Amino acid sequence: MTMFEIFFDLVFVFALMRVIALMEEGPGAVSLGRGLLLLLLLWWAWSAFIWLGNRVRLDRGAVVGAVLAAMTALFVAALVIPSAWDAHHGPWGPALVLALAITVVRAAYVSAFLWSARGDGRLRTQVLIDLAPQSASCVLLVVGAVLGGTAQGICWALAFALDFGVGWLLSRYNGWRVASPAHFVERHGLVLIIALGETVLSAGSGLPTADGGPTLPTLGVGTLGFAVVVGLWWTYFRGPSASAHEALSRAGAARRPALARDGYTLGHLPLVAGVVYVALGTRLLLDDVLAAPGAPARTVAVLALTGGLACYYGGLGLFPRVMGGRWGRVPVVAAAVTVVLGVVALAVPAFATLVVTAVLVGTAALAVQHGEGAGARARP
Question: If 0-12 CB within 10 Å is exposed, 13-18 middle and 19+ buried, where does residue 254 land?
Answer without folding.
Answer: exposed
